[in-house]
Amino acid sequence: MRTWPLWIAAAFVAAIIVHILTVLLLPPAIMSMAMIRMADAGADAGVVHAPPPDARARTVVRPSPDLAYSICLFDLTKGPLLVKATVPDTYWSVSAFAHNTDNFFVVNDQQLPGDTLELLIKREEDEISGFDGVPVSFAPTDKGVVLMRMLVTDRDSYLKNDTVRRSASCETIPQG
After folding, report:
1. Which of 87, 122, 130, 170 is the one with CA 20 to 30 A from 96?
2. Do residues 43 and 71 make contact, with C-beta atoms less than 8 angstroms apart?
3. Whether 107 contacts 142, CB under 8 Å
4. 135 within 8 A of 41, measured Cβ to Cβ
5. Edge to edge, what strands does the sheet with 103-108 contain?
6. What is the pLDDT of residues 106-136, one digit of tens each?
7. What percent of the residues of the chain are helix, what percent strand, and what percent coil, each to the nearest 5?
8. What is the rounded CA–CA span in Å between residue 145 and residue 141?
9. Global confidence as pTM
10. Which CATH number does 40-172 carry?
11. Distance in angstroms (rounded) separating the CA atoms of residues 75 and 172
């Protein structure tokens, strides 16, 4: 009696199970570990403005040495998040990531009509007033990360634009 068809079927079922578990469980686990590191750096209390990365920098996964990063964590169970930033005089972008690593919002300096960003990140069911005209992005998960990137071409451009970068804020708007 040949057992190889049974072994092939068992390997196929095992591969499907491993694939499904990897796709469903790995991204939130990776984001949880990254968010713990970011919280340890203070990103849960506001915006953390990391220095230009070097060989030891790992707050952001695989950081580029040509970018300066600013990071804030959000927890929408505490209320919507208001992100404010002034665009520096260089390439700049803002991305928002859900807890499962999905990127649900992105904008760069070329896409903004002016030199400032004001963005409200909230859940679909959140009711909030007083923010008429402020763009809204709906987060697919309650927790996540806002990541701002600024191009650093040389030390002088970094020093010139770092003050503008540091004026960014992430503020939780309490539900009342």
Report:
1. 130
2. yes
3. no
4. no
5. 48-49, 67-75, 143-151, 92-98, 103-108
6. 999 999 988 999 999 999 998 888 888 899 9
7. 30, 30, 40
8. 11
9. 0.79
10. 2.60.40.1610
11. 8
